[in-house]
Amino acid sequence: GEDVEQSLFLSVREGDSSVINCTYTDSSSTYLYWYKQEPGAGLQLLTYIFSNMDMKQDQRLTVLLNKKDKHLSLRIADTQTGDSAIYFCAESYTGNQFYFGTGTSLTVIP
Amino acid sequence: DGGITQSPKYLFRKEGQNVTLSCEQNLNHDAMYWYRQDPGQGLRLIYYSQIVNDFQKGDIAEGYSVSREKKESFPLTVTSAQKNPTAFYLCASTRTGTEAFYGYTFGSGTRLTVV
Q: Testing the interface with B: which of A93, A96, A104 to mutate, by most B Cβ within 10 A?
């Protein structure tokens, strides 16, 4: 499969912004996604971005895409304790198969 | 409400046993997927099916089997040939074609433990 890389851990203080980064290798990626997984649960789709976009904002979430560097980031503004979870980056070219990163475990310190 | 239901939530398997994990969806999705999740390794694709009575191996299919007799159901059997089955198993579904790009819907997972 394609390589999708993320750092494993991130800690932030409540109220600060969190930035979770992801790099991918497939330059043909058409859609890129961010999923959230709470403990013991499945993955929940947070947001996605088309490859012809540079940025997408949805309330506290901002997704930035740098196609040249194959870099995707998720910024969470005013991070809350309820945002503590594992965040997965994923990409797809065909829509038939999605490739996931290893996940970044976000810990929010009160 | 539409969604994907995985059962059981927890499953214990003795050495040498086959066990079957259930996945049912009422979203009218065409494609269904099974992933295995291990700590620090992300999600690895076991099997997927894009249409009834057809399925393809993913990256780690050895020791697993599936069937797709109905659009709504995609059960996964973990056979005794799978040497390290302890993991969290996730089922997902999506539409096919251009609508597939709107992403997966995931079930809540089954945690399988070998005892």
A: A96
pLDDT tens digits for range B67-101 = 999 999 999 999 998 889 999 999 999 987 766 67
Partner residue opposite B42 with nearest CB, options A48, A97, A101: A101
d(CA B95, CA B44): 20
Tokens of A65: 């895409």
Q: What is the largest CA-CA distance in chain A?
A: 41
> Distance between CA B40 and CA A90 in Å, rounded?
15
Contact at 8 Å (CB) between B103 and A45? yes
- Token pair 């979870």 in the structure block, residue: A85
**Residue A5 near residue A23 (C-beta atoms within 8 A):** yes
